[in-house]
Every structure is written in C-alpha cells, then in structure tokens.
Backbone:
C-alpha cells in the first residue's frame, strides 16, 4: 500500500513538472506572437502615415509616392498638440488612429542639424507606460513648397504599451 501511494505521488509530481514546463513554453510562445502582431501594427501604421492626405505632397493635381509636405507636417503636428492640451475632438480622432505612440520626422539630407521645427518635427507624441517595440524607421521624401526644396528624411515610429 505504501509503495502504491509513493508511485502515485511520484507520477503526480512528474505530471505537475510537465505542466509547468508546458505552460512556460506556451507563455513564451504567446509573448512572441504578441510582439509579432505589435510589430505588424507598427509597420501598417507607417504605411498608412506615408499615404495620409493630411501630409502628402501635391504639386498641381498630382501626388507623389511617400512624400511628406513639410508645411503640412508642421501644421498638423501643432494642431494635434494643441487639441491634446484641450482634450478636443481632433486629438480623440487621431488617438483612435495612432494610439500611444511617438512619431517624428527627421530631415537627413541636405541638412542634419536636428533643430526642432527646421529639420526635425514631432508629428504625434502620446507616451504610454513603456516602449514595447523597436523604433521603426521609414524613408520618406520631404518637400517644402515655400522654398521648393526637396529633401530626404526618416519617419520614426515608436509604439507604447
């Protein structure tokens, strides 16, 4: 009788250890899957942003592929930040699209002084608790219709939890 109880006890311990290893494996798998989905959301967001009519370059009646208008970029960034302070409808609209993220555009060529408002713009900044994905960098063309200068830039997107 004692041997049978001992064998059953050992079998239960083996089953419990197996269950713990299996649950740890599943947890790691779920965490990896969540990271892949989050990265996919960031890439989709970057793709959507590069084609926003609020930001796209337009010369005459034609639009250019992955081109951001610098004046529109400055005005939209300022508009979103002002509406965020007032908790206005506009911020809620953009929050539904962008969630907790930070979106910056930096002019790389011909200038790279990193001066805010001149060649570095914060389009959207609504920080969350912690950054949960790497910064996604998307190359973009920049166009300033006031000076008619074209430039090359990088749009950086960081998603928060």
Residues:
């Amino acid at each position: 009788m004692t041997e049978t109880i001992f064998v059953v006890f050992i079998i239960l311990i083996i089953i419990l250890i197996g269950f713990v290893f299996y649950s740890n494996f599943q947890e790691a798998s779920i965490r990896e899957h969540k990271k892949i989905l989050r990265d996919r959301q960031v890439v989709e967001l970057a793709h959507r942003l590069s084609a926003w009519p609020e930001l796209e370059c337009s010369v005459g009646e034609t639009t250019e592929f992955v081109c951001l208008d610098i004046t529109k970029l400055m005005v939209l960034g300022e508009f979103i930040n002002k509406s965020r302070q007032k908790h206005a409808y506009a911020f809620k609209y953009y929050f539904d699209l962008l969630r907790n993220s930070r979106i910056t555009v930096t002019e790389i060529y011909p200038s790279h002084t990193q001066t805010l408002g001149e060649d570095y713009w914060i389009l959207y900044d609504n920080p969350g608790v912690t950054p949960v994905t790497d910064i996604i960098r998307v190359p973009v063309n920049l166009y300033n219709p006031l000076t008619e200068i074209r430039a090359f830039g990088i749009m950086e997107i960081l998603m928060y939890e």
